[in-house]
Write a structure and sequence with these properties.
mainly alpha; MetI-like fold; ABC-type transport system permease protein; transmembrane helix
């Protein structure tokens, strides 16, 4: 039989460990995620082509090289275009999907089936998803290039936009829409003047999230782009293969800055009162 004192000591140990767990998680996150990023940022301001620690002098030379590299700028414009397309298309489709999953008159089994179909990209390996889109594009005569890449990005962002907006849809008070209809408003007027303003924070966050996902997507683009287009992730991968370390450091910091700005803007949106 275990002595009561030992049981009490064990309980105190568990309580002490649980109380310190968040701090341990934070420390591990800093060590394994943020410190490497800070190291890359630190090395990116070295004028050397093969920078080492410590840096003897600081220079923005590699940032200038990145921002004046025509191939990288074309890749950047392509990534921005794909991101805007994914943000707009993914949010529109996500809005429709969220409505189907929450407020539509569809039966529960049909709603569940729609949810499963929309969430498939989350469970199917990205390589398989890209391969399937590529095979389909080849059979219908599209081949590789911008169109299949755009479709692939749209498939990839759809689950995120749908479930993000659906979470907000589920919190809305349906009585507000019913009251508007009782006052004579049409369905479009109800959606435009009541539902849409309440969904606006989630819609904007969804668009920003979709843009960030598309901007940073590599595997789908790698399998479907062919030789006709390149994006920022593909361009960075190409620099990795040739060992352009200094260029990579500066380009990586710029990509990180874009993602950080998007995350910061998205975090400013709050639920309407």
């Amino acid at each position: 039989m275990i002595e009561p004192d030992r049981i009490d000591n064990f309980r105190r140990l568990l309580k002490y460990g649980a109380g310190r767990l968040p701090g341990v998680v934070v420390i591990l996150t800093v060590l394994f995620l943020y410190i490497p990023v800070l190291v890359v940022a630190y090395l990116s301001v070295s004028p050397s082509g093969q920078p080492t620690i410590p840096i003897e002098e600081f220079s923005l030379q590699w940032y200038i090289d990145v921002l004046t590299d025509q191939r990288f700028l074309r890749a950047l414009m392509t990534s921005i275009g794909l991101g805007v397309f994914s943000a707009i298309g993914g949010t529109i489709l996500g809005l429709a999907g969220a409505y189907s999953l929450t407020w539509s008159d569809l039966s529960r089994p049909i709603q569940q089936a729609i949810g499963v179909i929309i969430s498939l990209p989350l469970f199917v390996p990205t390589v398989v998803l890209a391969f399937g889109i590529g095979v389909t594009a080849g059979h219908i005569g599209i081949g590789f290039g911008l169109v299949p890449v755009a479709v692939g990005h749209l498939f990839w962002v759809l689950p995120f936009t749908t479930f993000l907006i659906a979470a907000r849809y589920a919190e809305l008070d349906i009585q507000l829409q019913a009251a508007a209809r009782d006052l004579g408003a049409t369905e479009w007027t109800v959606f435009r003047t009541v539902t849409l303003p309440l969904l606006r924070p989630a819609i904007i966050a969804s668009a920003l999230f979709a843009f960030a996902l598309s901007f940073n997507e590599f595997l789908i683009t790698f399998f479907l782009a062919g030789s006709g287009i390149t994006t920022v992730p593909l361009e960075i991968f190409g620099k990795v293969r040739v060992g352009a370390v200094a260029f990579l450091n500066a380009a990586s910091v710029l990509v990180l800055a874009v993602s950080a700005v998007l995350a910061g803007v998205a975090s400013t949106f709050r639920r309407p009162i």
